[in-house]
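INFO  loader      accepted 1 record
INFO  loader      residues=370
INFO  predictor   begin
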Amino acid sequence: MEKHIGNLPLLVLLTAFCWVSFTHGSNVVRTNNGLLLANNCPQLGQTALNVYAVDTSNPASIGGELDLEITKDTGLQSDSVKISQINVDNYFWGCALTVAQPKRYKGLRYGVYEATLDSATTARTFVKRNSKILDTRGVFTVTLYPASGDPSETDLAPHDPFGVVWSPGCWQIQWCKGKRRNIYSGPKLQLSKIEGAAGIYTIRRGKRGSRGWFVQIEVIVASCPPDMYLDGSGTCSSRSRFPCLNGGVGKDGSDQCTCPPPFGGFVCDIELEASPLYTGILGQEEISSDEGTLRCGDLEGGNTRCKGFLLCYADLYGCKCAPGWHGNKCDRACPKGRWGADCSQHCPSSNIDCNRFRGPENRRTVIMIE
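INFO  predictor   done
INFO  writer      dumping tokens
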């Protein structure tokens, strides 16, 4: 089975001779989140870009194999790509793709990288260049929900507009989606109808787009409202479990949650310790390194605190900075009073120690589910 990364043909049935490389966080412990695709956002002046794909559900022992494929939307020059496998603590976690600065068409290394595991679970990660005009404030994916659980309903629930921060250069930008060009020209877009809403929107700066002057935002449209899920009969049912905690997001088609590191459990109420009993979440530097764990610092260019890592899960979770960080390059520490992935969680108003990676120190609530 031959797949292509850009115009570079590759046999990407990943075996012990895998050529693709992946990045990881401080510690990876095992959970059921499936495929994780991450990138360490390029810094100014950095010549190499690393994109990583990891099977977070069942890393194989060394000598095993994963049916993992990786592609890129706008292609890559074959002479700018280097692929390697990730073997840590006697486990084969996945692969890493290193993209050098091309001699020509420098914009080719920016865009959407996609990995597919076992032809089923898919995740994407977004790589963009720095631009004051094309500044999304660290937003890479947006999840929208239908207004009701009625399958015949065509309206989306109200949502905040998404796009770029306004600047004088916004007069030059163009919105595109697939083969549709110039579908919109303002800095912010708001959608109202379900049909045609999902997909990847490219915001370009006029004719300079081919040189990397573009950003991309994926719109994910859920099948059901946030408090419901799509059951086996194809209808929206109320979630029987408690709401997702600690920044978790409900799955589409499952009465479970996708959890940001280092949390697990059906509702993300359990803080996972580094242990061979769990698989595949990116943790933080406070967790001790036990056998069968993967750390951000294990990867080339990886920071022990996961600085600069954009984590992308499948389902409705989308892409968020590693816990404790936010911003376009995921390198800005959470401001006081915020914590978690993308700094999206609020610390309690009372004067309680609140770790920006894991939240309030006294938060150790375990919810028992029958």
